Amino acid sequence: MSELAESFIEGIEYTEIPVSDLETALDWYCNKLGAKVAFQNKDLAAVNFSFGPSLFLVKTINQTTSTFLINGEDHYSIGFKVKNIEGFHNFLKGLGTKVNDIQDEGAVGKFFTFYDPFGNMFDVHQPPTGFGQ
């Protein structure tokens, strides 16, 4: 990293995703996924999980998501780390959430993707025991 950039950027503080209904988004992220509201006004809300950057839910009337395409396939922009991937996968399915199958990638852990009620795609990762230590 350049000396100049190192002196300014400390890390990633938050990321933002579009939502069409802020109250529904707050219910989904807080009451279903366990986030806590850090800030809210009529146009956006910041929610926090137990660690990591804040997630800003930004109200929009546009039909858009944070999901982008790679070779014509949906791709996520945010990944969640979990301790019990099978339990979380089953929990989301029980909510009627669109979820993809769990993939076991061996030495790097298990993964799956899901979509929130607004079409934002997320990745879920459970690292293997001792990963990154």
Describe it for me?
This protein is of the alpha+beta class and 133 residues long. 20% of the residues lie in helices and 35% in strands. It is built from three helices and ten strands, in the order αβαββββββαβββ. The strands form three sheets. Strands 1-4-3-2 form a four-stranded mixed beta sheet, with helices on one face. β8 and β9 form a beta hairpin. The longest helix has 11 residues. It is globular, with a radius of gyration of 16 Å. The two termini are 23 Å apart.
Number of helices: 3
Structural class given helices, strands, pairing? Answer: alpha+beta
* Main β sheet profile: 4 strands, mixed
| Ends apart, CA distance between termini | 23 Å
How are strands sequenced across the largest beta sheet?
1-4-3-2
Tell me roughly what share of residues is in helical segments: 10-25%
What amount of the residues lies in strands?
25-35%
Beta strand count: 10
Computed CA radius of gyration, to the nearest angstrom: 16 Å
Oligomer: single chain
Topology:
Blueprint: H1 3-8, E1 14-19, H2 22-32, E2 36-40, E3 44-48, E4 54-59, E5 68-70, E6 73-75, E7 78-81, H3 85-94, E8 103-104, E9 110-115, E10 121-126
Parallel strand pairs: 1-4, 7-10
Antiparallel strand pairs: 2-3, 3-4, 5-6, 8-9, 9-10
